[in-house]
Design a protein that fits this description.
Largest sheet: 2 strands, antiparallel
Low-confidence stretches: 1-11
Bound molecules: tryptophan
Order of helices and strands: HHHHEEHHHHHHHHHHHHHH
Structural class: mainly alpha
Mean pLDDT: 84
CATH architecture: Up-down Bundle
Strand content: under 5%
CATH superfamily: Amino acid/polyamine transporter I
Number of strands: 2
Number of domains: 1
């Protein structure tokens, strides 16, 4: 099978790097903490870890493998047959669904990235360390100012689009390679500091003591959705990443590394944020604002707090930017490959659609305050409801598709001749994606439907 010929080595390399970094992003810090907060802590964390192991890891292997075998993006991959292309494949709509999910995520990811820009400015202006300022309210003020959020999101889109349209991702990625380790260092340092806060023991209990009575009714579907989201699964991002992998790369070991590191980072984020939340006596279930309410308070009493604050939000922004670039690039590639657009036109199209979606979620705290589903505003509806339902659907389709691919192709990618263990692991993985993953997801769906029926 000839690899499809798209992208030069440079942009391939850029995309490859972006995809590695794509798993680590706002999902680990911002989303993990807020979703854990609203779902009652420990028992939810346990569920999330279970889903990462039982679903995330095998699916990550499947996505990477699909990309590596077909050498195509997600739309092309679903049309793939060992002996050629099948444009009328009935799997096609899965790729479309994955792209829709990318648009939705990019829509609100952009708004939250805009918040991060705002916090960099506040940090530089000394608002976190000024004894008269109340940094915990910065986010509330921002959320009620819809137009400022649109402006900030616009700035973020312009950054992202100009990088993608010029195909200079690898420049940014070189940057990220410096920022990512620095970020991890800052996070680990702050975690140690957090552990000495008065609220630390309560926080650790909240995070790691599984009290199943505190689980919300939708916890299962939310833990599943988050496990997929944080590993960038169900978007086609990892399929693209796989398609750029060198032939000799051993996929399962790569996947274990990515999933393991990503989970550890999320748990660190929890241990960092919740002690602050409990020390402040703030509400752990306060939703998407949680990270932005708690972090700034930390810097006031910290030695070198001003600089640590600036560095923290700059690093967070880079994490958000590299994830946005990966999502954006995925969509642009689709318009170039499938709709035969020029790169500039494709970039403009993606930017425009993203702007509209971003405006919707940016105004969710002001103009559209009254559009709500239960307690949730537009940003949360986009983030949770859509993600929680779309990603698992794409995932089930994807694993069933991969299950039907030629045995030999998969074996070549999975089994490492040097280790006997991989032979046994191969058959475990095959059974997992064929039976376990679809059944767990369908069970979670049925459970959620029943809950919804009884709730209404
Ligand atoms: N996993 C990323 C995070 O944790 C978010 C994300 C989801 C993503 N899907 C993606 C990033 C696709 C890049 C590409 O923040």
């Amino acid at each position: 099978m000839q690899p499809s010929n798209r992208g030069t080595f440079k942009s391939r390399f850029g995309f490859y790097m972006a995809a590695i970094g794509s798993a680590f992003g706002l999902g680990n810090l911002w989303r993990f903490s807020y979703v854990t907060g609203i779902n009652g802590g420990g028992a939810f964390v346990l569920l999330y870890i279970f889903f990462v192991g039982a679903i995330g890891l095998p699916v990550l292997i499947s996505e990477l493998m699909l990309g590596k075998i077909t050498r195509r993006n997600i739309i092309g991959a679903f049309k793939w047959k060992p002996w050629g292309q099948n444009p009328k494949s009935r799997w096609r709509w899965l790729g479309v669904l994955a792209l829709l999910a990318s648009f939705v995520v990019l829509g609100y990811y952009t708004v939250v990235s805009g918040w991060v820009i705002h916090f960099i400015v506040q940090a530089v202006m000394g608002q976190f360390t000024n004894p008269d300022a109340m940094p915990e309210y910065i986010i509330d003020r921002l959320m009620s100012r819809g137009y400022l959020q649109i402006l900030l999101a616009g700035v973020h889109i312009i950054f992202t689009a100009s990088i993608v349209s010029r195909g200079i991702q690898e420049g940014i990625e070189r940057f990220s390679r410096v920022f990512m380790p620095l970020f991890m260092l800052i996070v680990v340092g702050l975690v140690v500091h957090s552990l000495f806060l008065p609220g630390a023991s309560e926080a650790l209990r909240f995070l790691f003591y599984p009290d199943f009575s505190k689980l919300s009714a939708s916890a299962a579907i939310e833990a599943l959705g988050h496990a997929l989201f944080t590993l960038s699964l169900g978007f086609g991002a990892m399929v693209a990443y796989g398609s750029y992998l060198k032939p000799e790369v051993h996929i399962p070991s790569e996947a274990v590394l990515v999933a393991g590191l990503d989970t550890i980072l999320s748990l660190c984020a929890g241990v960092l944020i919740f002690p602050i939340v409990f020390t402040m006596h703030a509400d752990s279930g306060s939703g998407p604002a949680l990270l932005f309410k708690s972090m700034p308070v930390l810097f006031r009493h910290l030695p070198l707090g001003y600089w640590v604050g600036v560095a923290f939000f700059v690093c967070l922004y880079f994490a958000a930017l590299s994830a946005s670039i990966a999502l954006f690039e995925g969509l642009v590639t689709y318009f170039i490959d499938e709709q035969k657009m020029k790169r500039t036109a494709a970039t403009l199209t993606v930017s425009t659609i993203t702007c509209i979606l971003a405006a919707g979620s940016a105004l969710s705290g002001s103009l559209f305050k009254n559009i709500r589903l239960g307690e949730r505003g537009i940003l949360e509806i986009m983030d949770q409801v859509i993600i929680n339902w779309t990603l698992p659907v794409v995932t089930v389709g994807l694993v069933l598709f991969v299950s039907r691919m030629r045995e030999k192709d998969k074996e070549d990618q999975f089994v490492d001749q040097k280790s006997l263990v991989s032979v046994r692991m191969f058959s475990t993985w095959k059974t997992t994606i064929k039976y376990l993953v679809p059944s767990i997801i369908i069970l979670v769906f049925i459970f959620q439907l029943i809950v919804n029926i009884f709730r209404s």
